[in-house]
Amino acid sequence: MNISAIVRRHRLLLAVGTLLGLAGTAATLLQPLLIGDLIEAVALDEPVTRPIVLIAALFAADALLAATHFYLIGRAGENIVLDMRTTLTGRLLHSRIRAFNRLEHGDVFTRTVADTAIARIALSSSVAQMITAGFTTVGCIAVMAWLDWRMLLVTVGCLGTASAVALALARAVRRAAVTNREDTSAYGSGLLRVLGALTTVKASRAEAREAERLRELADAARGSGVRVTRLSAMLMPAMNVGTQVSLAVVIAWGMARTATGSLSLEDLTAFIMYLFYLVSPLVMLFMALGEFQQGRAAIDRVRELAAVEQEDTGGSVPDRPAGSAAAVEFDDVTFGYPGTSAPAVAGVSFSLPATGVTAIVGPSGAGKTTLFQLIERFQDPDRGTVRVLGTDVAALPLDELRARVALVEQEAPLMRGTVRENLTYARPDATAGEIREAVEAAHFAEVVDALPGGLDTELGENGIGLSGGQRQRLAIARALLARPDVLLLDEATSNLDSDSETALRAAITTVGTRCQVLTIAHRISTVVDADRILVLEDGRLRAAGTHAGLMASDDTYRRLAGQQLAPTGAEPKAEPRPKAGTGATGTGAETDAGRRLTPAEAAR
Ligand SMILES: Nc1ncnc2c1ncn2[C@@H]1O[C@H](COP(=O)(O)OP(=O)(O)OP(=O)(O)O)[C@@H](O)[C@H]1O
Questions:
Q1: Could you list the residue range(s) of the whole structural domain that residue 231 is in?
Q2: pTM of the predicted model, to two decimals?
Q3: What is the number of structural domains in the chain?
Q4: Is 400 a catalytic residue?
Q5: Is residue 593 in a domain?
Q6: 223 and 258 inside one domain
Q7: Which residues line ligand 1 (CB under 6 A)?
């Protein structure tokens, strides 16, 4: 992210705000001189109306300029933070899945929300403050030198020492503040981790353990926060001591000189007023410097997050290929996750027609999900080509690819909102007729009709209020509304009740007449019904065919089919790993791990 380009975009507001601040400072600097004139006029018994009117006008101008300066700089800061957050969210939403998955969500949240706010202060008010406070400091020193350079030397000596101490403190504040940001971020990440798995935490009776871990993280943040406060608390007194010492010296020495007549009373009064004026901009200068340093650390963190690897959205929209093109085609595809030795998918080739149901089966870790990742281009193959409707997915713009390929995940995440809002998420403009048609095709209509508010029923976070099977059918209906050419379905592994299972099976069959349904099958019913079955093992396509054909020819398939048909009432094992020793030559339909296929199933 180009932060300086963002700041440049708002340079007009920043420049006008800073100029007004400088004008306000000039008005402040003139006040003691005019008050000196007033004292002189009173002493000489001259008319005082002019100096009083001038002083009043200067006060009013000062107030107006300060308020406008504050407003304009604040507004520029908000504009800058908006630009930073918009750029960041855009980059996060377009990040590559594999890069995003490496990020800690709590940290992403802290960088996007809190660090951008700190960067805003550094880029707007701190810079403006440094300019105006620097100007005031230089202005004060110039006028004081003009009034009495010897007393200025005393003042600079005392305040200079105090400033050196304050500068060292400001540096220490910055270091402590950076640690505090990291500690706060760690607490945020810890909290999100626990809240994201609250059910598991409760089921594992880990509440007390997690509470203690979070308390430790919060305590670390408290510790570094207290350190920031302790150091900041010493900043002001350090300057105060410097001011008090220089004030005492200036008053004592100044009064002695007024008595001898070598210094006028009005010059001494003006000098003392400038001395007071000098302290607050000096403190402001150090504070602004500290904030700017903190902001720089925050900007670095924001920049780091913005550098997250982006999806390559390139490619040109090709003409829709002729209907004869395969819906999905893998041509000798090999892919391995970075940092792993064995490829997750190795030399896989297959071709699927425009319609029908294809089931992918295989033991856990066989590479089933990876096939989906390659089709959706969440990952790019190391070798070989993946084609959708005849076009290499690498050449398709991502938007076009994902319009053609719909994905229904195993957990089928739903958003808080109504059933209708969830259904039309990918097609907000869908008509009532289209919604009804999709709902019926997904065999979800009877569920909607039974809901108290129908399509307008509110669902909780993650679609609470619907069963796992109902959630998946809703997600299928949602995918259908986008009229995909390919539907990728990661079947729910949860133990669906028989009604839900029958409905899901019917939905898959219906959808298979409209497009190609590629389903990671966790239940034998889908496999039995599928037009074709791909058997994966260790990333390789081991066999392909129909249920009956594979039952006759493939040992692994026979073993998987046998294991997946658990005895009635038992939890079906969704993705069993082959047992040591049984390997590819398992005992198949006769396995003792599950019941035998029914004759009807086996015959299909
Ligand atoms: N993000 C990842 N980083 C590294 N390795 C991964 C990653 N995701 C999967 N793998 C590895 O790739 C291989 C294939 O995984 P994949 O998830 O495709 O298998 P699967 O057949 O879908 O398994 P399951 O049915 O258990 O979900 C496995 O060995 C797995 O450990």
A1: 3-306
A2: 0.66
A3: 2
A4: no
A5: no
A6: yes
A7: 337, 340, 344, 362, 364-370, 575
